[in-house]
Structures
1.
Amino acid sequence: MKRIEKILGLSIISFAIIFGAFYIFLVIAGKQIIAKQIENLIHKKTTVEFFGFNPGFHLEIKKLNIEGIFKADSIYITPNLFGFFTGKLSFNNLKLIRPELTYIRTPPVVVEGIKPNGEIIASLPAKPIQPEVSPSSTKPLPFAFRRIKIKDGQINFIDQSMSNKSIKIIIKEINCSVSNLYLYPQRTMTSFDLTGKIPWGDSEVQGQIEFNGWINHFKKDMQASLKIKDIDAVYLYPYYSTWVDLDKARIEKAKLNFSSDIKGLNNNITAACHMELTNMVRKPLEAGESEEKASVITNKVLDMFKTADQGRVELNFIIPTKMDSPQFGFENFKTAFEGKIMQSRQASAFKPADVLTFPVKLIESGAKTFSDLGKALVDGIFAIGNDLGNSIREKAVVK
């Protein structure tokens, strides 16, 4: 009996020594191993301040920094060892404390030639070139997460692809929870809940985002709700500055609220969207200053929308798409816009025939996607030109 106790005691001591040595090795060398693997994968300098684990095999990483892309104060990981034996990278828990992701969008560079001295001749194409991807390379990695928690996260989106000005959009104070996320076919439902805030430059008012729902990737079913409040339309002006002149339209401040009720069944997605313009502030005319045509037309369009919705400026439209290849179409938006114009024809200053001409002019302006809407709206309105220009100015003078 004493011999068995001695053997058991020696076994426990040996295990403790081995575990201690292994733990010390990981604490000292583990962070270098992790940093090196990440650097080899994405070719960015990576540093890790601390890496360790406890007997329950709960891994902890502190002060992870991938230069220019990602950093986090702490990351806690609990692997599912049984899942690893099945050939899957399975985790019971993944928790990220104050992660920060940065994405910089730049215009793609195309090499047109090489000078004799080796200098590359490059230019910026109108459209990015899509590389050919083999079907095998599109297969997702076999990752699985039972629970994911993100606390006080941040996303920095820097768009440098525009020729006139770069713009930075930040989503901060992100709190997110995801359960049952499988990156391979699995008969289960993934649920998610995300909240965050969007600061707009120096403005005191911050936007708010809420996104929650569930997705069944296997059946291609889903139900979700997206709400974005207090979008600063003036801050986003660089995106439509080539289409609209805010100074001439006398728009000083404007905010948007957007919501979408998303439902999907058998890969067919229907997103019922609602957009509303709020808190618009117009610049007053100076003494003796005449109102420009752009401002007059802006007044007229706003009046038409307000007449249709008891003083509100809003639009409802449907986006039909597919879960495995989501696309944002303009057709339903165009239909909703035409319907709004038709509703307001009796109360507006336009004649019925002119109202019918209005959406046709918009279609002729070439809007095919939502990103073309601003250009379509402005080009379409000015395309009416000779038909309604004099009438609009006369009405504005009467006012």
2.
Amino acid sequence: MKGIAYYYAEFQRDLDAADASMGAAFKTFSSTHSPREVFLWLERYRTQGQLPVTMEHLLTDFYWEIT
């Protein structure tokens, strides 16, 4: 298990590289919500095609980390 902090750092890196405003939104949301809520928030953007493809594998691993 890599830990929640690892996944948050990776998500932040990918989001900042893809879209700075999305990175800022993630930083704010992840600091005030539970990992489960963060997963659902990211998943919503993934299903809408708004997340970088590089995050899909990380998102799956993160899901298994928090369950």
3.
Amino acid sequence: MNMPRANTPLQRSSAFYRGLRLSMLAFWTAALAGVAQAGTLGLPDNTARIGYSAGPAYISIDAARSAPNKTWSAVQSLIYTDWFLAGTRYWAALRYQQADFDAGVNKTGAHLTSYGARLSVQNSFRVTESFSPWLGFGLDITQNNYSKQFRVDSDGYLAERFAARSTLSSGVVLNAATEWSFGRAMHAGMQLEQLLSVNDKLRETTLWASLLYRY
């Protein structure tokens, strides 16, 4: 009887890029539809913005045969955002991240490199005349590469090494953001975002600082 074979790294990589292409196709479809609908609704023609975001992230992973491991890291991303309804916008991000997890007696140390794409829909809620935060949710697809995995004994000496591994994770993101305008084209903002991975035991909370340009 033929046994099913595990996915090879090449197959996982191909699946990641297929997912990324589908995400970007959905993103551009939404962008084109948003431009057309913005004109119909009388929204400004130049609501689209591009920019850069970076900030600290608090990550938790739960590897096999290991207690949960947590650490801080820096994350950065490229942003594209545009309105597609009055008071509603999409927020697309291509992101990159590295993190180092310390090893322990029951915790596996590792170096994490991840890159992927996120697409969120956000709605503006007026709290006061001068404060209208954006609240939203979206989807995430990320390639996580774990290397330099090891465990130490109670004296701090190397006890065990593990092979590198890669996972293709999908998840749900929740976010809240606020922004300030500087002149006609420049915008700065802060965004708090929570990632809940669906098929990988990973949790991440990120505080983003963004600089956007309306063109």
4.
Amino acid sequence: MIELTTRPELVQVGIQSTAVALIVSAFLLLLGGRAMDLGGSFRATLEPLLRQIREGTSRSRAELADASVVAAIVFASFAVVFEQPLVALVLVVVLGWGRPLIRRATSEENRILALGQSFSIDLVIGFYLPIVAAELLLLNYFIAASMALVVLALSWPASGGRPWTHRP
């Protein structure tokens, strides 16, 4: 079995170039307005699975998003120790700062009212997805998992939980 650290130099350069191209494409998607399309189609793909999970829990969309962000912070903290300390530390700080913003963005349970927030959510998801792929290529698994959990946090669908009724 070939060790990941003993890859031929040409393969490593190709992987690193592809990762840089993915990061550049994330910015181009953002600037060109296509990040919203990518994020929207990704959320639409995940929606049936996430809706099924929501039907099995009494947690709100915001609570599920908050739990996903907390898990993202944990994975980013692991990355501080095991992967890229500086990048991961910045990610931990940004996620800690952004946690209330994500909770607020996912607090709307009415589908129609949630559509107003979905545009900015789709934009962030469309920007993050190429960066997650780049981090996977660079073998930064904890950072990739952390960013993927942020995408998950933003992807929870509105109005999918159990009704808030009191049962005797």
